[in-house]
Amino acid sequence: MNISVFSNKEAMAIAAAEKAKEILDAVITKKGKASLIVATAASQMEFLDALIRINDIGWSKTTVFHLDEYVGLTEEHPASFRKFLKERLINKVNPGKAHLIRGDAPDIGKECERLNGIISQHKMDFAFVGIGENGHLAFNDPPADFDIEEPYIKVELDEICRKQQLGEGWFETLKDVPQNAISMSIKQIMKSRAIICVVPDERKAQAVKDCFTGEDVSPMYPASILKKHKHCFVFLDDKSSKYLK
Q1: Is the pTM of this model over 0.90?
Q2: What's the whole-number average pLDDT of the chain?
Q3: Is 48 inside any structural domain?
């Protein structure tokens, strides 16, 4: 794992986008195509904006997979991550294919099976991720399951996670925040050949310290597993890195 710290959020986002382009270009040149996972959250906005400003990425040769989605939300809901992903990436760059999570599917088990059948046909080249205020990776809240084999799973969101979503302005009250989500599993994320983890803002500083300092890897700090990935690049700003030496 490699950690880079930048003086502000904008510089961090630009550097992360440039690294993403470098990796995507290399994969597409070698394979003629690329499969990637994209996180959708407030912390990823600047990074995705910087990424789409780069004009010569071969998006038509990419297949995009969705990292997580709330159970029960329609795509029209302001907090829908499908809505976020379409508006902030898919509709602007037109990837070759995009496989989205239907969080409002009538049978969540069958929806996970559908997604698992699709992703099992791809070797994941790249993942764009962030981490939560509780250290979660995707919606794998602590204590996270590092061993589950299924690529997509139904998870229960803890209170810290749900309060984060409320604090980011996606919902009017805590009761409105769904209690469950479909999330890509830790093991599936770690199968990616390369990972870019973008973590801005002071509210993530304690999680950054808990997850990325020391040698320990713990399910209580889910994103700490990224320390085991040989090609993980973590991008921090001056605020999220405030507790690092």
Answers
A1: yes
A2: 95
A3: yes
